[in-house]
Design goal:
The longest helix is centred in the C-terminal third of the chain and has 26 residues, at 143-168. The protein has 169 residues and is mainly alpha-helical. The chain has a 3-stranded antiparallel β-sheet with strand order 1-3-2. The protein has a domain at 24-137: Orthogonal Bundle (Arc Repressor Mutant, subunit A). Helix content is 59%, strand content 7%.
């Protein structure tokens, strides 16, 4: 469409809003929906084990399992969380007995986070379940499709970060 019409002819109006019968096909919506579905799936898997561990907690536990003794700031940066949110997650893990905090011997102002024996056991018990679930989720996708998916999602994330840096600040 041309002229002063609010519709551009590409399925979007002049404001970039999708105009079609299938608004659920918008990539951002599909990403959000998949993310929420994966969260619900994870919570149900954890519910069956009465752990109360959230996806955010699992991410911290698995990162600590891979590299124990990280600083709280490293955990926050590595999980793309702000420091207050990271503190809340760590407090929840500490109350479950999965992590402990220790002052850094070289800089007493800094705190390192370590998995407890219970935390290590929890990760070891859940990791096979997580791996089986992951394999089921990716069933039917080729290695190339997974590589492309990762590349696309990273590109979208990087583009969003660039927009946040230029448009929001």
């Amino acid at each position: 469409m041309t002229g002063n019409s609010p519709h551009s002819g590409n399925g979007r109006d002049a404001y970039g809003i999708v105009r079609s019968d299938r608004t659920d096909d918008a990539p951002a919506w599909l990403i959000q929906r998949a993310s929420r579905t994966l969260r619900v799936l994870f919570l149900r898997l954890m519910e069956s084990r009465a752990s109360g561990v959230t996806p955010e907690m699992w991410l911290v536990l698995s990162r600590l399992y891979a590299r124990d003794g990280q600083y709280q700031t490293q955990i926050a940066d590595g999980t793309f969380r702000d420091r207050p949110n990271t503190s809340r997650i760590l407090a929840g893990l500490e109350s479950r007995g999965y992590v402990r905090k220790e002052k850094d011997g070289e800089d007493m102002r800094r705190v390192r986070i370590y998995l407890t024996d219970a935390g290590k056991k929890f990760v070891q018990d859940i990791a096979p379940v997580a791996a089986r679930t992951r394999d089921t989720l990716y069933e039917g996708l080729t290695d190339e499709e997974l590589r492309v998916l990762r590349r696309i999602l990273r590109r979208i994330e990087n583009n969003a970060l660039e927009v946040m840096e230029t448009e929001v600040n």
